[in-house]
Amino acid sequence: MLMMETASGSRIVSASREIAATSERIFALIADPSQQPRWDGNGNLAEAQPGQRVRRSGEVFIMTLTNGHVRENHVVEFIEGTRIAWLPSEVGGTPPGHLWRWELEPAGDTTTKVTHTYDWSRLADEKRLLRARGTTAEMLQASIARLAAIAEAQ
């Protein structure tokens, strides 16, 4: 099942799909920043150092982007195996207000519904608005598809 959602003028974009893998397997790939460049469908993430596995809200993980910029990602939602969300920011900066969220829901013994959301409803930084507007449900779906390929092959 594939679902993509974006309302005209909305600042929240999401995509969903069922993946033939357990939520634990999928969540392990999402919550370990060093794995994220493997499934990033936007070609935005270059690398993250190993050992940053997220375990709770309030943690910060560091990611290097393909353009060489480094981002701190402030984890603001966390339920092991179910939900993780973070607010990116420049190193030492305050997050400008855009949030990336992953939600996992068992859809059977070995199948999981995965929803990926980009919420820029609180983004006020004019320099970031153009790129935020360009983030589509199809781009989120590309990340889910790559994540599915990895999780289903394990």
UniProtKB/TrEMBL annotation:
Gene3D superfamilies: 3.30.530.20. Transmembrane segments: none annotated. It comes from the Bacteria. InterPro entries: Polyketide_cyclase/dehydratase (IPR019587), START-like_dom_sf (IPR023393). It holds the Pfam family Polyketide_cyc2. This is Polyketide cyclase.
